[in-house]
Amino acid sequence: MERGGCVYIMTNKYRTTLYIGVTSNLMSRIWEHQNQVDLKSFTSRYKLNLCVYYEGFFSIEEAILREKELKSWKRAKKNQLIEIKNSKWEDLSEEINSW
Question: Within a 13 Å sphere around the CA of 50, how many CA atoms are in the beta-carbon half?
Fold first, then answer.
């Protein structure tokens, strides 16, 4: 049985830094970022606590491939991707929790 996965993008309130991650449990992973579970992590150091984008996949392997693809993009292209789904760059945590 394959396990699904998600790719997500976190940012801070000023939108100055992006973090692209992959997980098999999106709600839990977003909670960890928002609550700074690992104080030495990149998201904690840069206060990236807003989830502004996510995509779901049938397998974690698909999600990992998409993560690698997105990480190779220039910032402008990543911004465009976010703005297609979330033009106001709002935190999508509530949407994810009701998923």
Answer: 15
Contacts of 52 (CB under 8 A, 6+ apart): 9, 10, 11, 82, 86, 89, 90, 91, 92
Helix (H) or strand (E) holding 57: strand 50-57
DSSP code for 88:
T
Q: From residue 82, how far is each of 10, 37, 55 by CA, in Å?
A: 10, 25, 11
pLDDT digits (tens, 9 = 90+) for 51-80: 999 999 999 999 999 999 999 999 999 999
For 66, residues 6+ apart whose C-beta sits below 8 A from its C-beta are: 7, 22, 55, 57
What number is the average pLDDT over the span 33-41?
A: 93
Read off the pLDDT band of 1 (50, 70, 90): very low
Instruction: Report the SS3 class of residue 74.
Output: coil
**Which amino acid makes up residue 64?**
I
